[in-house]
Amino acid sequence: MKNQIKSILKEYTKVTAIKESTLDIIAEKIEKNLLIKQSLEAKFWKFVEKAGWLNDQNYTRINKKFKSLSKEEQKELSDAFNKFHEDLYDEYKKDWIGTPGIEVSDDGWSDLRAEVIGRGKNFYDNISAEQLREMALNRDYKESFSYCFHSL
After folding, report:
1. Rounded Cα gap, residues 138 and 89, in angstroms
2. pTM of the model
3. How far apart are CA 63 and CA 78, in angstroms?
4. What is the mean pLDDT of each run of 10 residues along the chain (152 residues)?
5. What does the angle CA 31 – CA 36 – CA 40 come to, to the nearest 5 degrees?
6. Nearest Cα to 45, choosing from 114, 148, 118, 131?
7. Diameter of the chain by CA atoms?
8. Residues contacting 38, CB < 8 A, separation 6+
9. Nearest to 68, CA basis, from 51, 49, 45, 85
10. Are 116 and 124 in contact (CB under 8 A)?
């Protein structure tokens, strides 16, 4: 991975002629940050899987598990949830407010995106605007997986 990063950096920085040793340092830092991000995302999806939202949409039960984690872990998982929730917003906002649209209110749109996350990584990775429309039309979502990540 480091060599791929260096290659991209070399291409991007041709004009500024950065030293090879500087590229090594930058590439190592980028690689480290990517590995940390991947690790945190894997940790988040593992928590989601163990939460069992599909079988039992009891956000109070899941929130108890969440609150039993350290404050650092809670923050990591909460940040990951928010990132995935925002990514869905960014990717499907035009479908939500456009034509034919996704028929849900502001709160429903938030709940719908939270539901997609609650169904797990595979579901999240494969969601489409059409599936979101069908879920909204059939009211195939619950309020709200996002509550699982609240702490006092």
Report:
1. 20
2. 0.78
3. 11
4. 65 62 69 68 93 92 93 93 96 92 93 96 97 96 90 61
5. 150
6. 118
7. 58
8. none
9. 51
10. yes
